[in-house]
């Protein structure tokens, strides 16, 4: 027996079984009856077993082997049809699952609304979300482990930059605000009030730390970082406790309120900067592999860009 039956012969055989007649199968397939008979004979030779009992003057009988082959053939052709549908969808850039990496604050403050909006459009693609910082996410995009990375860039010279390894789309900017713990009933803090306080930022090699030092150098100050962490929520906890000041993305401050405060006062307050100080921000980027992207990625990127446009340009304390 051949290791793989001829699919054309198998298709003819299945038509004969379904129609119960070689003549009717021939008409359905557009063959002459003799061609159908030859196909069946060739298939039986390939299989090494009788599939149909055909005697003049009597109806066509499918043997036990023929019934088993017919069932297997139906399964094969159904699977082939499903494969063809999937292949056609892939050719039209339809995908079943999209793996998206994003930094933690994007997951907690930007993506929930965006993913809800995308889900309501019923695009069919399942989003598998991975929390990952930008430096760790970039190699995973290159390796194909992530289809899209929502990344940040604090300084223009920092990666990622467009290259043959990945495509980079700028989505917008998250303003950074210098904040300190709230002091109800006292005057707002100014930058000069913070020079003797502890500051919180990332590790010395981190982009937010380098941005802090570049900004501080332009202002002629030298902040002392006493809490080094990559976790913005840890930074906020220290700031709320009055133990540090730091530059925090506005997206994390929109709903800041003190724990159980009846007064509605914010848990953190914005530090007033000298007139003419350059506003700070971090750029939000979409990073993917080069080439044509599935439409669902483009939709997700567009929704994220719209979400960033709605972010206020500064943190304003409630009245």
How would you characterize the overall build of this protein?
The chain is α/β, with parallel strands linked by helices and 319 residues long. The chain folds into 2 domains: 85 residues, Arc Repressor Mutant, subunit A; 213 residues, D-Maltodextrin-Binding Protein, domain 2 (3-Layer(aba) Sandwich). It contains 11 helices and 11 strands. The strands form 3 sheets. Strands 3, 4, 5, 6, 9, 10 and 11 form a 7-stranded mixed beta sheet that branches. Strands 1-2 form a two-stranded antiparallel sheet. The protein has a two-stranded parallel ribbon with strand order 7-8. Helix 1 crosses helix 2. The N and C termini lie far apart (86 Å). The C terminus is likely disordered.
Describe the SSE topology.
Elements: H1 7-19, H2 22-29, H3 33-47, E1 52-53, E2 61-62, H4 64-91, E3 97-102, H5 104-109, H6 111-120, E4 126-131, H7 134-143, E5 148-153, E6 167-181, H8 191-194, E7 198-201, H9 207-219, E8 224-228, H10 232-240, E9 246-249, E10 268-270, E11 280-288, H11 295-309
Parallel strand pairs: 3-4, 3-5, 7-8
Antiparallel strand pairs: 1-2, 5-11, 6-9, 6-10, 6-11
Indicate how many domains the architecture comprises: 2
Taken in chain order, the helices and strands follow as: HHHEEHEHHEHEEHEHEHEEEH
Structural class: alpha/beta
Uncertain segments are 256-265, 315-319
Computed over alpha carbons, the radius of gyration is: 33 Å
Distance between the termini: 86 Å
User: Helix count?
Assistant: 11
> Beta-strand level of the residues, as a percent range?
15-25%
Q: What's the total count of β strands?
A: 11
The overall average pLDDT, rounded, is 84
Main pleated-sheet profile: 7 strands, mixed
CATH classification, class level of the largest domain: Alpha Beta
CATH fold topology of the largest domain: D-Maltodextrin-Binding Protein, domain 2
Label the overall shape: rod-shaped
What's the CATH architecture of the largest domain?
A: 3-Layer(aba) Sandwich
Portion in helices: 40-55%
């Amino acid at each position: 027996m051949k290791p793989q039956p001829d699919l054309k012969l198998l298709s003819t055989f299945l038509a004969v079984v379904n129609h119960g007649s070689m003549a009717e199968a021939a008409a359905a397939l557009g063959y002459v009856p003799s061609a159908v008979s030859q196909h069946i004979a060739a298939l039986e030779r390939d299989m090494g077993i009788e599939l149909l009992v055909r005697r003049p003057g009597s109806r066509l009988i499918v043997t036990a082997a023929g019934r088993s082959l017919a069932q297997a053939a139906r399964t094969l052709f159904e699977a082939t049809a499903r494969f063809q549908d999937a292949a056609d969808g892939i050719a039209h850039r339809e995908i079943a699952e999209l793996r998206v990496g994003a930094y933690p604050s994007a997951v907690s403050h930007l993506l929930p609304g965006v993913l809800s909006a995308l889900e309501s459009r019923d695009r069919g693609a399942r989003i598998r979300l991975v929390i990952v910082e930008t430096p760790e996410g970039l190699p995973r995009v290159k390796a194909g482990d992530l289809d899209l990375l929502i990344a940040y860039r604090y300084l223009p010279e920092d990666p990622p930059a467009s290259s043959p390894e990945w495509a980079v789309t700028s989505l917008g900017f998250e303003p950074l605000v210098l904040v300190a713990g709230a002091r109800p009933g006292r005057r707002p803090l100014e930058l000069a009030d913070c020079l003797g306080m502890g500051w919180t930022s990332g590790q010395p090699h981190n982009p937010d730390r380098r941005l802090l030092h570049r900004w501080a150098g332009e202002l002629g100050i030298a902040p002392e970082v006493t809490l080094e962490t990559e976790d913005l929520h840890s930074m906020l906890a220290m700031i709320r406790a009055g133990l540090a000041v730091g530059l925090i993305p506005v997206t994390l401050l929109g709903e800041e309120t003190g724990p159980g405060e009846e007064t509605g006062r914010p848990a953190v307050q914005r530090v007033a900067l000298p007139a003419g100080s350059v506003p700070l921000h971090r750029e939000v980027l979409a990073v993917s592999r080069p080439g044509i992207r599935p439409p669902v990625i483009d939709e997700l990127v567009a929704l994220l860009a719209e979400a960033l446009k709605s972010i206020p340009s500064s943190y304003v304390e409630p009245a």
